[in-house]
UniProtKB/TrEMBL annotation:
<feature type="compositionally biased region" description="Low complexity">
    <location>
        <begin position="311"/>
        <end position="324"/>
    </location>
</feature>
<feature type="region of interest" description="Disordered">
    <location>
        <begin position="298"/>
        <end position="355"/>
    </location>
</feature>
<keyword id="KW-0408">Iron</keyword>
<keyword id="KW-0479">Metal-binding</keyword>
<dbReference type="InterPro" id="IPR058240">
    <property type="entry name" value="rSAM_sf"/>
</dbReference>
<dbReference type="InterPro" id="IPR007197">
    <property type="entry name" value="rSAM"/>
</dbReference>
<keyword id="KW-0949">S-adenosyl-L-methionine</keyword>
<keyword id="KW-0411">Iron-sulfur</keyword>
<protein>
    <submittedName>
        <fullName>Radical SAM protein</fullName>
    </submittedName>
</protein>
<dbReference type="InterPro" id="IPR013785">
    <property type="entry name" value="Aldolase_TIM"/>
</dbReference>
<dbReference type="InterPro" id="IPR050377">
    <property type="entry name" value="Radical_SAM_PqqE_MftC-like"/>
</dbReference>
Protein backbone atom coordinates (compact mmCIF):
# COMPACT_ATOMS: atom_id res chain seq x y z
CA UNK A 1 0.00 0.00 0.00
CA UNK A 2 1.31 3.41 -0.88
CA UNK A 3 0.48 6.95 0.14
CA UNK A 4 -2.66 8.67 -1.03
CA UNK A 5 -3.70 12.27 -1.30
CA UNK A 6 -7.19 12.56 0.16
CA UNK A 7 -8.99 15.87 0.69
CA UNK A 8 -5.72 17.71 0.37
CA UNK A 9 -3.89 15.57 2.91
CA UNK A 10 -1.28 12.86 2.54
CA UNK A 11 -2.61 9.65 4.08
CA UNK A 12 -0.10 7.07 5.28
CA UNK A 13 -1.05 3.43 5.86
CA UNK A 14 1.30 3.44 8.86
CA UNK A 15 2.21 6.17 11.32
CA UNK A 16 4.62 8.86 12.28
CA UNK A 17 6.91 9.29 15.24
CA UNK A 18 7.63 11.97 17.79
CA UNK A 19 10.85 11.64 19.79
CA UNK A 20 10.27 13.36 23.11
CA UNK A 21 13.46 12.49 25.02
CA UNK A 22 16.60 11.94 23.01
CA UNK A 23 18.58 10.28 25.78
CA UNK A 24 17.89 6.93 27.38
CA UNK A 25 18.35 5.08 30.65
CA UNK A 26 19.82 2.13 28.70
CA UNK A 27 22.73 1.99 26.26
CA UNK A 28 21.77 -0.60 23.67
CA UNK A 29 24.53 -1.32 21.18
CA UNK A 30 23.73 0.04 17.73
CA UNK A 31 20.59 1.89 18.87
CA UNK A 32 19.22 3.26 15.62
CA UNK A 33 18.30 6.57 17.26
CA UNK A 34 21.88 6.81 18.59
CA UNK A 35 20.50 7.62 22.02
CA UNK A 36 23.59 6.39 23.91
CA UNK A 37 25.66 9.17 22.33
CA UNK A 38 23.01 11.78 21.70
CA UNK A 39 22.97 14.87 23.90
CA UNK A 40 20.57 14.80 26.82
CA UNK A 41 17.57 16.73 25.58
CA UNK A 42 13.80 16.88 25.86
CA UNK A 43 11.32 18.21 23.37
CA UNK A 44 9.66 21.44 24.51
CA UNK A 45 5.85 21.16 24.55
CA UNK A 46 5.65 24.40 22.53
CA UNK A 47 7.81 22.85 19.80
CA UNK A 48 5.71 19.69 19.77
CA UNK A 49 2.49 21.72 19.61
CA UNK A 50 3.78 23.84 16.72
CA UNK A 51 5.03 20.88 14.68
CA UNK A 52 2.03 18.65 15.31
CA UNK A 53 -0.40 21.38 14.37
CA UNK A 54 1.50 22.24 11.17
CA UNK A 55 1.74 18.58 10.15
CA UNK A 56 -1.93 17.93 10.91
CA UNK A 57 -2.92 20.32 8.11
CA UNK A 58 -1.30 18.04 5.53
CA UNK A 59 -0.94 14.54 6.95
CA UNK A 60 -3.02 11.72 8.37
CA UNK A 61 -1.80 8.38 9.68
CA UNK A 62 -3.04 5.28 11.47
CA UNK A 63 -1.09 6.03 14.63
CA UNK A 64 1.48 8.32 16.22
CA UNK A 65 4.31 6.72 18.15
CA UNK A 66 5.80 8.65 21.03
CA UNK A 67 9.30 7.47 21.74
CA UNK A 68 12.92 8.51 22.22
CA UNK A 69 15.47 7.81 23.73
CA UNK A 70 13.29 6.78 26.59
CA UNK A 71 10.04 8.76 26.47
CA UNK A 72 9.18 8.11 30.11
CA UNK A 73 12.14 10.33 31.05
CA UNK A 74 10.15 13.37 29.90
CA UNK A 75 8.56 15.04 32.94
CA UNK A 76 5.80 16.52 30.74
CA UNK A 77 4.96 13.34 28.91
CA UNK A 78 1.26 13.40 29.80
CA UNK A 79 0.65 16.91 28.36
CA UNK A 80 2.66 15.88 25.29
CA UNK A 81 0.39 12.87 24.80
CA UNK A 82 -2.55 15.25 25.00
CA UNK A 83 -1.02 17.37 22.23
CA UNK A 84 -0.56 14.31 20.05
CA UNK A 85 -4.14 13.23 20.54
CA UNK A 86 -5.56 16.73 20.05
CA UNK A 87 -3.59 17.21 16.83
CA UNK A 88 -5.91 14.76 15.08
CA UNK A 89 -3.05 13.33 13.02
CA UNK A 90 -4.03 9.81 14.00
CA UNK A 91 -6.76 8.10 16.01
CA UNK A 92 -4.27 5.97 17.97
CA UNK A 93 -1.34 6.96 20.20
CA UNK A 94 1.36 4.46 21.12
CA UNK A 95 4.20 4.97 23.60
CA UNK A 96 7.30 2.87 22.90
CA UNK A 97 9.41 2.25 25.98
CA UNK A 98 11.97 -0.13 27.45
CA UNK A 99 9.54 -0.40 30.36
CA UNK A 100 11.98 0.23 33.20
CA UNK A 101 10.09 3.34 34.39
CA UNK A 102 6.56 2.07 33.71
CA UNK A 103 5.89 1.14 37.36
CA UNK A 104 6.11 4.88 38.18
CA UNK A 105 3.35 5.84 35.77
CA UNK A 106 -0.05 6.60 37.23
CA UNK A 107 -3.63 7.00 35.99
CA UNK A 108 -3.02 10.24 34.08
CA UNK A 109 -0.45 8.51 31.85
CA UNK A 110 -2.55 5.43 31.23
CA UNK A 111 -5.60 7.55 30.44
CA UNK A 112 -3.66 9.49 27.79
CA UNK A 113 -2.41 6.57 25.70
CA UNK A 114 -4.01 3.83 23.57
CA UNK A 115 -1.11 1.39 23.43
CA UNK A 116 2.22 0.80 25.16
CA UNK A 117 4.90 -1.15 23.33
CA UNK A 118 7.58 -2.54 25.64
CA UNK A 119 10.94 -3.59 24.22
CA UNK A 120 12.37 -6.12 26.66
CA UNK A 121 16.12 -6.72 26.66
CA UNK A 122 18.20 -9.42 28.36
CA UNK A 123 18.82 -8.59 32.03
CA UNK A 124 16.59 -5.52 31.65
CA UNK A 125 13.25 -7.12 32.38
CA UNK A 126 10.85 -5.86 35.01
CA UNK A 127 10.29 -8.27 37.90
CA UNK A 128 6.98 -10.11 37.61
CA UNK A 129 5.39 -8.31 40.57
CA UNK A 130 6.08 -4.93 38.90
CA UNK A 131 4.80 -6.21 35.55
CA UNK A 132 1.62 -7.29 37.33
CA UNK A 133 1.10 -3.68 38.43
CA UNK A 134 1.71 -2.46 34.88
CA UNK A 135 -0.78 -4.95 33.49
CA UNK A 136 -3.35 -3.87 36.07
CA UNK A 137 -3.09 -0.22 35.01
CA UNK A 138 -3.30 -1.16 31.35
CA UNK A 139 -6.39 -3.25 31.95
CA UNK A 140 -8.04 -0.55 34.05
CA UNK A 141 -7.63 2.01 31.25
CA UNK A 142 -8.20 -0.31 28.29
CA UNK A 143 -4.63 0.20 27.04
CA UNK A 144 -3.15 -2.41 24.75
CA UNK A 145 0.19 -3.79 25.98
CA UNK A 146 2.59 -5.17 23.36
CA UNK A 147 5.84 -6.84 24.37
CA UNK A 148 8.77 -7.56 22.06
CA UNK A 149 11.60 -9.62 23.55
CA UNK A 150 14.99 -8.85 22.04
CA UNK A 151 17.87 -11.29 21.94
CA UNK A 152 19.74 -9.65 19.06
CA UNK A 153 20.27 -6.36 17.28
CA UNK A 154 21.41 -5.46 13.84
CA UNK A 155 24.13 -2.91 13.34
CA UNK A 156 22.29 0.28 12.42
CA UNK A 157 25.08 2.31 10.86
CA UNK A 158 28.77 2.33 9.94
CA UNK A 159 31.01 5.15 11.12
CA UNK A 160 33.06 4.95 7.93
CA UNK A 161 30.12 4.59 5.54
CA UNK A 162 30.59 3.69 1.91
CA UNK A 163 31.41 5.33 -1.41
CA UNK A 164 29.63 2.56 -3.32
CA UNK A 165 26.51 4.16 -4.82
CA UNK A 166 25.11 0.75 -5.71
CA UNK A 167 25.29 -0.44 -2.12
CA UNK A 168 23.72 2.81 -0.85
CA UNK A 169 20.83 2.39 -3.27
CA UNK A 170 20.39 -1.30 -2.38
CA UNK A 171 20.29 -0.46 1.34
CA UNK A 172 17.80 2.35 0.70
CA UNK A 173 15.57 0.31 -1.62
CA UNK A 174 15.26 -2.51 0.93
CA UNK A 175 14.98 -0.29 3.98
CA UNK A 176 12.06 -1.51 6.07
CA UNK A 177 12.30 1.53 8.32
CA UNK A 178 11.48 3.92 5.49
CA UNK A 179 9.35 1.77 3.17
CA UNK A 180 7.66 -0.97 5.22
CA UNK A 181 7.26 0.32 8.77
CA UNK A 182 7.39 3.95 7.58
CA UNK A 183 8.89 5.35 10.75
CA UNK A 184 8.51 8.93 9.53
CA UNK A 185 9.75 11.34 12.12
CA UNK A 186 8.72 14.81 13.18
CA UNK A 187 11.70 16.80 14.39
CA UNK A 188 12.36 20.49 14.96
CA UNK A 189 10.00 21.86 12.31
CA UNK A 190 10.87 19.17 9.76
CA UNK A 191 9.40 15.90 8.53
CA UNK A 192 11.94 13.11 8.00
CA UNK A 193 11.52 9.82 6.19
CA UNK A 194 13.19 7.92 9.04
CA UNK A 195 14.76 8.60 12.46
CA UNK A 196 18.22 7.63 11.23
CA UNK A 197 18.28 10.61 8.88
CA UNK A 198 17.55 12.85 11.88
CA UNK A 199 20.16 11.50 14.26
CA UNK A 200 23.04 10.20 12.11
CA UNK A 201 24.03 13.59 10.62
CA UNK A 202 23.96 15.20 14.05
CA UNK A 203 26.19 12.55 15.63
CA UNK A 204 28.58 12.04 12.73
CA UNK A 205 28.79 15.79 12.11
CA UNK A 206 30.17 15.85 8.58
CA UNK A 207 29.83 19.62 8.42
CA UNK A 208 26.77 19.59 6.20
CA UNK A 209 23.27 20.76 7.05
CA UNK A 210 21.93 18.22 9.59
CA UNK A 211 18.37 18.90 8.42
CA UNK A 212 19.19 18.28 4.75
CA UNK A 213 17.34 14.95 4.59
CA UNK A 214 14.13 16.39 6.01
CA UNK A 215 11.34 18.47 4.56
CA UNK A 216 10.61 21.75 6.33
CA UNK A 217 7.01 21.85 7.56
CA UNK A 218 4.88 24.53 6.00
CA UNK A 219 1.28 25.63 5.72
CA UNK A 220 1.77 26.63 2.08
CA UNK A 221 -0.93 25.26 -0.27
CA UNK A 222 1.61 23.17 -2.20
CA UNK A 223 3.02 21.46 0.91
CA UNK A 224 0.88 18.26 0.70
CA UNK A 225 2.06 17.71 -2.90
CA UNK A 226 5.68 18.30 -1.89
CA UNK A 227 5.29 15.93 1.08
CA UNK A 228 3.87 13.25 -1.21
CA UNK A 229 6.75 13.68 -3.66
CA UNK A 230 9.27 13.49 -0.80
CA UNK A 231 7.74 10.26 0.53
CA UNK A 232 7.59 8.66 -2.91
CA UNK A 233 11.09 9.71 -3.96
CA UNK A 234 13.27 6.81 -5.15
CA UNK A 235 16.44 8.72 -4.29
CA UNK A 236 18.46 7.61 -1.24
CA UNK A 237 18.96 10.11 1.54
CA UNK A 238 22.31 11.58 2.42
CA UNK A 239 22.28 9.57 5.67
CA UNK A 240 21.95 6.30 3.71
CA UNK A 241 25.70 6.55 3.00
CA UNK A 242 26.38 5.58 6.62
CA UNK A 243 23.11 3.91 7.52
CA UNK A 244 22.67 0.16 7.09
CA UNK A 245 18.89 0.35 6.81
CA UNK A 246 17.51 -3.08 7.66
CA UNK A 247 20.55 -5.03 6.53
CA UNK A 248 23.16 -4.55 9.25
CA UNK A 249 24.90 -7.65 10.53
CA UNK A 250 23.05 -9.35 13.36
CA UNK A 251 24.71 -9.52 16.76
CA UNK A 252 23.75 -10.60 20.27
CA UNK A 253 22.21 -7.85 22.34
CA UNK A 254 24.64 -5.93 24.49
CA UNK A 255 24.77 -2.70 26.42
CA UNK A 256 27.37 -0.02 25.69
CA UNK A 257 28.64 3.07 27.40
CA UNK A 258 28.56 6.53 25.86
CA UNK A 259 32.32 6.18 25.47
CA UNK A 260 32.46 2.89 23.58
CA UNK A 261 29.18 2.98 21.61
CA UNK A 262 30.78 4.44 18.48
CA UNK A 263 33.79 2.12 18.59
CA UNK A 264 31.48 -0.78 17.89
CA UNK A 265 30.41 0.66 14.54
CA UNK A 266 33.85 1.93 13.54
CA UNK A 267 33.76 0.08 10.24
CA UNK A 268 32.74 0.55 6.64
CA UNK A 269 29.22 -0.18 5.43
CA UNK A 270 30.65 -3.06 3.42
CA UNK A 271 31.99 -4.67 6.59
CA UNK A 272 28.75 -4.31 8.51
CA UNK A 273 26.22 -5.26 5.81
CA UNK A 274 24.49 -8.63 5.98
CA UNK A 275 24.50 -9.44 2.25
CA UNK A 276 22.38 -12.54 2.67
CA UNK A 277 19.65 -10.59 4.42
CA UNK A 278 19.94 -7.79 1.87
CA UNK A 279 19.18 -10.32 -0.88
CA UNK A 280 16.33 -11.79 1.13
CA UNK A 281 14.82 -8.32 1.48
CA UNK A 282 14.83 -8.02 -2.31
CA UNK A 283 12.42 -10.94 -2.41
CA UNK A 284 10.60 -10.37 0.86
CA UNK A 285 10.48 -6.71 1.86
CA UNK A 286 8.88 -7.55 5.21
CA UNK A 287 11.25 -10.40 6.11
CA UNK A 288 11.79 -11.01 9.82
CA UNK A 289 15.16 -9.63 10.92
CA UNK A 290 15.60 -12.30 13.59
CA UNK A 291 16.09 -9.90 16.50
CA UNK A 292 12.96 -10.18 18.62
CA UNK A 293 10.07 -12.46 19.39
CA UNK A 294 6.73 -11.89 21.07
CA UNK A 295 6.84 -15.06 23.15
CA UNK A 296 8.88 -14.97 26.36
CA UNK A 297 9.67 -18.68 26.39
CA UNK A 298 10.93 -18.52 22.81
CA UNK A 299 13.08 -15.56 23.86
CA UNK A 300 14.61 -17.47 26.76
CA UNK A 301 15.41 -20.31 24.35
CA UNK A 302 17.08 -17.90 21.94
CA UNK A 303 19.17 -16.44 24.72
CA UNK A 304 20.26 -19.89 25.86
CA UNK A 305 21.35 -20.71 22.31
CA UNK A 306 23.68 -17.75 21.97
CA UNK A 307 27.13 -18.85 20.89
CA UNK A 308 29.86 -19.32 23.50
CA UNK A 309 31.75 -16.05 23.93
CA UNK A 310 28.79 -13.85 23.00
CA UNK A 311 28.88 -10.69 25.09
CA UNK A 312 26.83 -10.85 28.24
CA UNK A 313 23.72 -8.73 28.05
CA UNK A 314 24.85 -6.64 30.97
CA UNK A 315 28.40 -6.17 29.76
CA UNK A 316 29.32 -2.52 29.58
CA UNK A 317 32.80 -0.99 29.44
CA UNK A 318 35.42 -3.63 28.86
CA UNK A 319 32.94 -6.03 27.31
CA UNK A 320 34.11 -8.45 24.67
CA UNK A 321 34.30 -6.30 21.55
CA UNK A 322 33.32 -7.64 18.21
CA UNK A 323 34.72 -4.52 16.58
CA UNK A 324 38.00 -3.33 18.04
CA UNK A 325 38.87 0.32 17.46
CA UNK A 326 40.83 1.60 14.50
CA UNK A 327 44.26 0.40 13.47
CA UNK A 328 45.96 -2.49 11.81
CA UNK A 329 44.40 -4.96 14.20
CA UNK A 330 40.88 -3.85 13.39
CA UNK A 331 38.84 -6.86 12.42
CA UNK A 332 35.46 -7.08 10.76
CA UNK A 333 32.59 -8.30 12.90
CA UNK A 334 31.33 -11.75 12.14
CA UNK A 335 27.94 -12.35 10.60
CA UNK A 336 25.53 -13.92 13.03
CA UNK A 337 22.60 -13.73 10.69
CA UNK A 338 19.56 -15.52 11.99
CA UNK A 339 16.93 -13.99 9.81
CA UNK A 340 14.11 -16.38 9.23
CA UNK A 341 12.31 -14.67 6.41
CA UNK A 342 9.06 -14.75 8.32
CA UNK A 343 7.03 -11.72 9.25
CA UNK A 344 7.42 -10.16 12.66
CA UNK A 345 5.60 -6.88 12.93
CA UNK A 346 6.74 -6.27 16.48
CA UNK A 347 10.42 -6.14 15.53
CA UNK A 348 10.31 -2.86 13.76
CA UNK A 349 13.06 -1.31 15.85
CA UNK A 350 15.36 -4.21 15.73
CA UNK A 351 18.47 -2.10 15.33
CA UNK A 352 17.99 -1.50 18.97
CA UNK A 353 15.63 1.34 18.92
CA UNK A 354 12.11 1.00 19.83
CA UNK A 355 12.18 2.85 22.99
S1 LIG B 1 18.92 6.68 6.37
FE1 LIG B 1 18.34 5.56 4.50
S2 LIG B 1 18.78 3.39 4.89
FE2 LIG B 1 18.77 4.50 6.87
S3 LIG B 1 16.71 4.25 7.70
FE3 LIG B 1 16.75 6.18 6.55
S4 LIG B 1 16.10 5.66 4.44
FE4 LIG B 1 16.64 3.75 5.52
Amino acid sequence: MSYDLVDGKVVSPEGCELNVAHHCNLGCASCSHLSPVFRRSLIAPETAARDLSLLARSFRARFVKVLGGEPLLHPELVPLLGLVRDSGIAPHTTVCTNGMLLPRMRDDFWAAVDEVEISVYPDRELPEEKMAGVRAYAEKHGVRLTLAYYSHFRYSYAERGTGDDGLVRHIYDTCQIAHVWRCHTLYEGHFFKCPQSVFLPQVLGDGGDPMADGLRLSDAPDFPARLLAYLRSPEPLRACRNCLGSAGLRMPHQQRTRRDFRELQDHTSEELTDRRFLRLLDERPDADDGCAVEDRDAWRERLAERPPGAPAASARAGAARSAPHTGAGRSAPSDESGASGGHAPSTRYAQGKRS
